[in-house]
Each structure stands twice: as structure tokens, then as C-alpha cells.
Amino acid sequence: MATIDGLPPLRAVIAAHGLSARRALGQNFLLDLNLTAKIARAAGDLTGADVLEVGPGPGGLTRGLLAEGARRVVAVEKDARCLPALAEVAQAYPGRLEVVNADALELDWAAYLTPPIKVVANLPYNVGTELLVRWLTPKTWPPVWSSLTLMFQREVAERIVAQPGGKAYGRLAVLAQWRCSARIVMSLPPEAFTPAPKVRSAVVHLVALPAPRFEADPTVLQRIVAAGFNQRRKMLRAALKGLAPDMEERIVAAGLTPTDRAEQVSVEGFCALARQVAAG
Ligand code: SAM
After folding, report:
1. What confidence tens digit (pLDDT) does each residue in 169-187 have?
2. Domain interval for residue 90
3. Which of 24, 216, 220, 238 could join 271 in a cystine, given CB atoms 3.0 to 4.6 angstroms apart?
4. 187 and 260 share a domain?
């Protein structure tokens, strides 16, 4: 069966290159090229942008990104077995795909791309959250990337977009929503993947805001949020005790209630508290 880019269907690619999925590498492949094109489109207009893809695997999403017009794609793949299949994709799109055989957690990926940069990935479940936290906490803001369009387990996606007051609301929500707009743009059943995982997945689209929504020192804010949610059943005054002298007074001065729990505190509230703690 012919495909839009003249390359073989993904099942044939997997068979030809012996790409049996490895659980340790979080390999759940997307084999439907219509679906990968839809995910690529969820990242917005790709023409004129460099795209970082983590974990291209057999190249389904990579092909979607290139077919949707990405200026260049830099695809970072840890599993060397995938390289021959990706080389065929690179050949079909001359000069537009660079494959880097590396662990995305170890690589200085920004050195490979020119802004504007969009990150689009069907992330390996075991490193997805770690990568997201790194992308959300660069040394300076705005970050080098302009948007992140990322597939996660549905439960993780819900934590990213969660509002205060529920169990899903925590560190990821505060980090993401402080300096980005974040929404779930697609929801996928397990059968969309090969092999099918146990749970549903979802694509989250985050756009970096030019400046944070509320003023706060990033290091202080991250310390407070980590302490608050590490002991999320405790009241703020107990969970944050020791972060600064007179903590209970600072909580009140920030307009918060010392007997509240972290999950009741809005992003704005955490930023107000970070300013009180940074005030010395
Ligand atoms: N993008 C492909 C797709 O949508 O079908 C594959 C997605 S699969 C969920 C995750 C991919 O990430 C696998 O190809 C796996 O080998 C790769 N991977 C796992 N850990 C990685 C890491 N630390 N750095 C780079 N790639 C990694």
C-alpha cells in the first residue's frame, strides 16, 4: 500500500528492521500515519520551525512532522536498532532530518537546533516527566523552545493541566502553568499503540508565555512547591516549616491560610509566598 511520502507502511518498516518493541525503552509505537500527522498538526504551523523529537523509534511521528512541513527535525533516539529505518526517512526528506543516536537526558540538544524551536514527541513513559521538568525549568525565561506538544499517559497529562483542589494538582501543574499555557489536545486509547499499553494516553500542548504569569524567583518557588507537595496531606505551616524563619507569618502575608494544604493553593498564591520567602 502506498503512503503519502512514498516510504513503506510502518508495519513493513518494523518487520524489515526487526524492531520488536522493548519495554525498558518505553517503546509503544504509533503505526497509523494519519494519527501521527494529526499529532504533528497539534503542534501548530511547523513551516519555518526546527522541531526536536525525542524517541522517533521507527519514525511514524517523524514522518508526520516532515510531511507537515517542519523546516528541520532533529530526532534523538537511544535505540540504535532504529537508525537504519530513520536513515530511510532522512533520504526521503533530503537535508531536513538529523538523527542523533543518544540518550535525550544526556544530550545538549539545543546545540543542534535554531529558533524558533518546537518540541514534539511521543515520549518514553519512563523519562517523560523528567524531560518535561527540565524543559519547564531552564536557566532563563523565555526558554529556547516556543512550544511543547507531548504524548503522556493520560494521568500525567491530567496532572499538567490540573486546577487547584484535586488530587491531580501538584508540582507539575504549578511548574507548567506558571510560565506556559497548557491544554490537552488529544486523547488516545491504548489500541492506538503497538504494543498497546495498559492505560490511555493524551497529547498536551504547552506554549511558553513571554514572561511568567506572576513574579517569583524560580528557585524559591520550586523549593516551596516541592516542600508543599512532598507532604501534601500536611497543612502548609507544617509542610513548609523550616524553609524560612517565621514561616507562618509569611504564609499569612502572602494572603494564604496556614492550615490549608498545598493542593488548595493557586499558582498565584505560590508565587506570592515565594516573594514573601525571598524577601529575607
Ligand atoms: N515516536 C515513536 C512513535 O510514536 O511510534 C516511538 C515512541 S516510543 C513511546 C518512545 C521512543 O523513545 C522509543 O523509540 C525509545 O527507544 C525512545 N527512547 C527511550 N528512552 C530514550 C532516551 N532516554 N533518549 C532518547 N530516546 C529514548
Report:
1. 999 999 999 999 999 999 9
2. 2-208
3. 216
4. no
